[in-house]
Write a structure and sequence with these properties.
This protein is an alpha+beta fold and 458 residues long. 55% of the residues lie in helices and 18% in strands. The chain has a 5-stranded antiparallel sheet with strand order 2-1-5-4-3, with helices on both faces. Strands 7-9-10-12-11 form a 5-stranded mixed sheet, covered by helices on one side. The radius of gyration is 51 Å and the shape is rod-shaped. Pfam families: HAMP, HATPase_c, HisKA.
Length: 458
């Protein structure tokens, strides 16, 4: 639990910290450059203002006034003649000005002025120069100076602010990532615990899933898996119990009657009767094993359907002709109707197995003198086959379960009650393997209709 939270949180932290570092560095550099550029612009603008005043009134009083103004400001001024000789200056700036001015190439200074000293990191001052021009000639230059200590102090404060904001941002990032990693990993941890329970055979897993994102979909998939496995476990247990029950009864009969038939003092007629019962029970077990084998092949997806184009009416007619004698023996009527001889793609042998099973049930659970009908017709884009009887019907409560394995409406499971309880389950599997569906409509005491729907072949 901690490993995934730590790894996910660390991964998020590294990515977010990297992004924040790049953004903060870019912002810091941009802001510092903008502030320094602003300081240069302000100093140059101040020098240009003094230059403009001197160009309008170049007198001694004006020169002194300019110097007096700068003596009260944070900046300093030096006024030179056209050859670079210092005429007026602020007292504190003279040593630095004497070093800078002789090395300044005034020939390339435009009328708008320019920065002549911009090394604010190593020098004590930054400086600008603005030429004084009168009657088309250069009268002199106004040099403006500003201590770099103020700029460095501003940069230091800016660094401090960025450092504080950076520490707060990292702290908030850690808290946010911790919260988000917990929010993301808690569902994953619950899913991990759920899958561990599933691996141990505990299918009573219940995940509270909210939302429609990928994690929610994964949680729903695990919950669905748990529900399906729980259902399969229940079905398997019921299936094994049903097989045990189905085999126990005929085996009991076989063993019991075999013991009696082995007695030397019973009549041959009675022995023959017992052997006949043993034979019937052996046939019952053989049919049960055969049906189980069919279901096993279906479950393992090794049940092959070989479809062939088949004329529906011709196929149903052959089924009718094969089953009609059995109905006549029981004094029941079997009716065959087919409206349109459409073509369907079916595995004839497998589908005959379905039809024979349904008709056998209709024969078994219908009264003497009643009628069973086979109907084939088109319904929209599908082919519908319906087998209807006038038999005992199926109770409404049992109707949804009749296609389940070993399910019987007759809960007594009497030996004379008929088949193995697998016939309808096999029929459903075969029909669905053809891309169709099967369902039942029944009214208890009045009869049942089994309806098969198949896609029509083009």
């Amino acid at each position: 639990m901690r490993k995934i939270s730590f790894k996910l949180g660390l991964l998020f932290f590294v990515f977010v910290l990297g992004i924040e570092t790049v953004l903060f560095a870019s912002l810091y550099v941009t802001l510092v450059n903008a502030r320094i550029h602003e300081e240069f612009e302000q100093l140059l603008a101040r020098g240009n203002n003094h230059r403009d005043v001197l160009e309008k009134s170049y007198h001694l009083s004006t020169l002194e006034h300019v110097v007096m103004m700068e003596s009260e400001a944070e900046t300093d001024v030096v006024i030179t003649d056209a050859k670079g000789n210092i005429l007026y200056f602020s007292d504190r700036i003279l040593p630095f000005a004497k070093k800078l001015i002789p090395h300044t190439d005034v020939r390339h200074i435009p009328h708008g002025g320019m920065v002549v000293q911009n090394n604010w990191k190593k020098q004590a001052y930054i400086a600008t120069a603005s030429p004084i021009r009168m009657d088309g000639k250069t009268k002199g230059y106004v040099y403006m100076f500003q201590r770099t200590a103020s700029i460095q102090n501003m940069i230091s404060k800016l660094k401090h602010h960025f450092l504080v904001v950076g520490i707060v941002s990292v702290f908030l990032t850690i808290m946010t990532i911790f919260f988000l990693s917990r929010v993301i990993t808690i569902p994953l941890i619950r899913m991990k615990q759920a899958t561990e329970k599933l691996s141990k055979g505990d299918f009573s897993v219940r995940l509270q899933v909210k939302g429609e994102d990928e994690l929610a979909q994964l949680g729903k998939a695990i919950q669905t898996l748990a529900t399906d496995l729980e259902y399969l476990k229940k079905e398997r247990n019921e299936f094994l119990a049903s097989i045990s029950h189905e085999l126990r009864t005929p085996l009991t009969y076989v063993k019991g009657y075999a013991d009696i038939a082995r007695r030397p003092n019973i009549a041959e007629e009675e022995r023959a009767n017992y052997l006949s019962i043993i034979y019937e029970e052996a046939e019952h077990m053989q049919k049960l094993v055969k049906d189980l084998f069919e279901l096993a092949k279906m479950d393992q997806h090794s049940f092959h359907i070989e479809k062939q184009p088949t004329l529906l009416c011709l196929f149903l007619k052959k089924i009718y002709e094969k089953m009609a004698p059995a109905f006549q023996t029981k004094q029941m009527a079997l009716i065959y109707r087919c409206e349109e001889n459409v073509t369907v793609h079916i595995d004839r042998q497998r589908f005959e197995q379905v039809m024979m099973n349904l008709l056998d049930n209709a024969l078994k659970y219908s009264h003497q003198g009643s009628t069973v009908s086979i109907d084939g017709r088109m319904e929209k884009k599908n082919v519908m086959i319906m087998i209807s009887d006038e038999g005992i019907g199926i109770p409404e409560a049992d109707l949804p379960h009749i296609f389940e394995r070993f399910y019987r409406v007759d809960k007594s499971r009497s030996r004379t009650g008929g088949g193995t309880g697998l016939g309808l389950a096999i029929a459903k599997e075969i029909v669905e393997a053809h891309g169709g569906s099967i369902h039942a409509i029944s009214q208890f005491g009045k009869g049942t209709s089994m309806i098969i729907t198949l896609p029509r072949s083009e």
